[in-house]
Amino acid sequence: MKLHFLTLFPEMFQGITASSIWKQASDKGAAEYEVTDFRAYSDNKHNKVDDYPYGGGAGMVLRAQPLVDAIDDVASSGRVIMLTPQGAPFSQQKAEALAKEEQLIFICGHYEGYDERIRSVVNEEISIGDYVLTGGELPAMVVADSVIRLLPGVLGNETSAHEESFTTGLLEHPHYTRPADFRGMEVPEVLLSGNHAHIEEWRKKETLRRTWERRPDLLAGRELDAEETRWLREFEEQ
Ligand code: 9D3
Predict the structure, then answer these.
(1) Are residues 55 and 87 both part of a single domain?
(2) How far apart are the first and last CA of the chain?
(3) Which of 14, 149, 166, 234 could form a disulfide with 92 if both were Cys (CB 3.0 to 4.6 A apart)?
């Protein structure tokens, strides 16, 4: 997959593209990154990318020309994603859909507004949540990160990305490693027992408990079997 990032702050992408899973993905040829400073595409004599809003008001508006010309130049095809606070909420389901594409183009801005005509070249507008950031770069990295880890050949275990938490829709059970006693806090007996059937059952129950305690909304529209129903009643009584 080719991932393009159009930004006025290309240096923000230096660390992440050269580290950890992003680096592994490009070393393996599963992902390729191209970061473009779209200021270079401005037809303005001072390379200006913003201007005053028609109709007046505070704040500047990102001009359409530099971004649209940059997209035309760097990518003849691919899905164009604009990160904005007004976008559709991001989700694991969206990440899985984007992971099927060959080329993604992320538009990252730092503006009060984008000239509406930029949207003529945009396929999808995404927000990563209801909090105010300073720009679209971190959101683009968040979206790209969630996509890159799903690409074939990126994670050591091909199936792990699909069998985990937000895909099965529940939170994970607690985990423990050595020592068995850390400052008086002991590992649950069952995990030391070697009885794999009991361990599996404990993990299923603690998965349900954690989800019930922290994210009851995830259990709302869900079918529960007899065992899960019994555990839920037990939690409610405790
Ligand atoms: C005064 C109205 N502001 C909207 C809440 C203007 C504004 C603030 C911050 C416009 C853009 C930004 C920068 N944020 C993003 O570009 C952004 C973002 C975010 O702030 N939160 C969650 N997801 C995203 S995606 C892009």
Answers:
(1) yes
(2) 49
(3) 166
**Pair 210, 172: CB distance under 8 Å:** yes
> For ligand 1, is residue 152 a contact (CB within 6 Å)?
no
Q: Is the pLDDT of residue 54 over 80?
A: yes
Does the C-beta of 85 come closer than 6 Å to ligand 1? yes
In 3D space, the residue among 149, 147, 116 whose CA is nearest the CA of residue 5 turns out to be: 147
Domain containing residue 229 = 165-237
pLDDT digits (tens, 9 = 90+) for 179-233: 999 999 999 999 999 999 999 999 999 999 999 999 999 999 999 999 999 999 9
Least confident of 6-20, 24-38, 66-80, 164-178: 164-178
State the total domains in the chain: 2
Q: Is residue 86 part of a domain?
A: yes
Please give the Cα distance from 129 to 138 (Å, whole number): 12
Of 133, 145, 146, the residue with max ligand 1 atoms within 8 A of its CB, to mutate for a pocket test, comes to: 133
Question: Is pTM, for the whole model, over 0.85?
Answer: yes
Tell me if 160 is assigned to some domain: no
